[in-house]
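User: Run a structure prediction on this.
Assistant: Running it now.
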Amino acid sequence: MFGSVVLDAILGILALFTLLGICITTLTEIIQSFFQKVRAAYLYEALKLLFTGKLKALTDKDLDFFQQVLDHPVIKAMAPPGKRPSYLDPGMLAQVVIDLLLRKDDTTVLDIPLEQLNEALAKGIAQIPSDHLRRALSTLLAAAQAKVTTAQELLCSFKTRLEHWINAVMDRAEGWTRRNAKVVSLACSLVICLVLNVNAFDLMQGLVRNDTLRAAGMQMASSLVKDNSPATLDQVCASRDDKAQCQFDSALSSLQALPQGAIGWNNRPAFLQHDQKNKTVWFGYWLLGVMTAALAVSLGGDFWFKVLSQMIRLTGSKTVQPPKP
């Protein structure tokens, strides 16, 4: 299409990685959401670290205030009964902490003098059993008391500092979730590439040498960028209850439309051929090719779609439109 066999082959393999990446991204989300409950688990661990200062050997004294936060109606409303929330707004959580501190002093009206609010917050913090949390909140309150003249200013300053503190821990939980997603994605990619016999080296050679396969790859690349397929899949599956399964099936059906021999075991690896010598070397070659493909696919459909779009833009072709914004 673009007058260069190598370039067309590169675009074809990018299109294949895009579709496989969509499958892997969907599988990763399914595993994390339904099997591991990763986000909710990591959020719970991060909050436990926030309110207790440790993750193990916790006493009732350490968990007292933390449990009050979890039992607060605002927090419990963020998850189905018996389950933990997978996301909490830092501002909402900061407000819950302030509410618990003030309730300890039976202070429910915030329209009070500055000195009285100071005393109420300080007394609420002093009654917290956990030494770690008591010191942390005392530090935040002392910083919030600087340059405030009204109770509302103090409350706003204290809440802002609580939000920043909570945000820092939320970022840590998000980092844990992303690292877990990378591990799951890489594992899924390796399994898929082994099952489908996706060898990056053989695939590239096939695209260069086989005109039919290269034409199919270019058609797939053109369709992906011209129609902005990831967005289209999202729109098609948006109203479905099984959205993730819908996206996976759509990407898989596009892969099945490829000519035989592109991926799959119809094109047997060299080490499985009876007349082939040096089978150990060829097995290593095949395994390295599969691992290379798995590592590439684990980057996800969004990454490869962006790379594919930029590559097609750089060709200046008039036959393929740039991706939709």
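DSSP finds 14 helices and no strands in the chain.
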